[in-house]
Design a protein that fits this description.
By secondary structure, this protein is an alpha+beta fold. It has a domain of 97 residues. Helices cover 31% and strands 11% of the residues. The chain contains six helices and seven strands, in the order H-H-H-H-E-E-H-E-E-E-E-E-H. Strands 3-4-5-6-7 form a five-stranded antiparallel sheet, sandwiched between helices. It has a two-stranded antiparallel sheet with strand order 1-2. Strand 3 and strand 4 form a beta hairpin.
């Protein structure tokens, strides 16, 4: 919920709704023209529907094109709800990997990126999470400003470099940025989070397994 509160703070400080702030200050400058909180009539037929839930044999309705093409919502979540494409998401990740700049457009300073991707959890704080995403000492990872951060080369059963930062969405989208290998990766699926863990972990194994010295 902290990121939702942050989204409201952005609205108050900027004097504009969060959807407009994202468009004016982030997505348009980076050329992310397929990213937003709702779909246009042209974009609607391209929406990826959620996969069928094997328990019910039905598709959950959270991502249906009908729901996402309505007029603007009353409230925009700072912590989720954006629609995007793999190519748009890649632009955002490349900007972070570049230290806050993409194609001559700078959104953040390298110092800000370094601060965001540092460990911000003090010793002794209660840590929990979801499986491989848990920011726990046992998993060799912690939490920065907005995402999990790899803090140990070992401990975690998944491959990755110290300093890698990453997170995953409620319906399966996941990304990580590995400054040591100068690499980022994005996987976009549409399924409830508990079902996506297998694919998220397999994706990590396959990408790192393909790297050569």
């Amino acid at each position: 919920m902290s990121t939702d509160v942050l989204g409201r703070i952005v609205e108050v400080v900027s004097g504009m709704p969060l959807d407009r702030f994202f468009e004016d200050r982030i997505t348009n400058p980076l050329g992310m023209h397929d990213t937003g909180f709702y779909l246009s009539a042209v974009q609607a037929p391209r929406v990826a529907e959620l996969q069928v839930d094997p328990a019910t044999g039905k598709r959950p309705g959270a991502s249906s094109a009908e729901n996402l093409t309505k007029e603007k919502q009353k409230w925009f979540s700072g912590g989720g709800g954006l629609l995007s494409t793999a190519s748009d998401y890649a632009k955002f990740c490349q900007m972070l990997l570049n230290g806050g700049e993409l194609n001559g457009v700078r959104l953040l300073s390298p110092q800000t990126i370094a601060l965001m991707s540092s460990d911000h959890l003090p010793p002794g704080i209660l840590r929990s999470g979801y499986e491989d995403m848990a920011p726990t000492l046992e998993m060799g990872q912690s939490f920065g400003l907005g995402f999990a951060v790899r803090t140990d080369a070992g401990r975690n059963p998944l491959p990755g470099s110290v300093g890698t930062y990453y997170w995953a969405g409620a319906f399966g989208t996941t990304f990580w940025i590995d400054p040591q290998t100068k690499m980022f990766a994005v996987m976009m699926v549409q399924m409830p989070f508990p079902q996506s863990g297998y694919y998220r972990r397999a994706f990590r194994e396959l990408v790192y397994g393909a790297l050569l010295p």
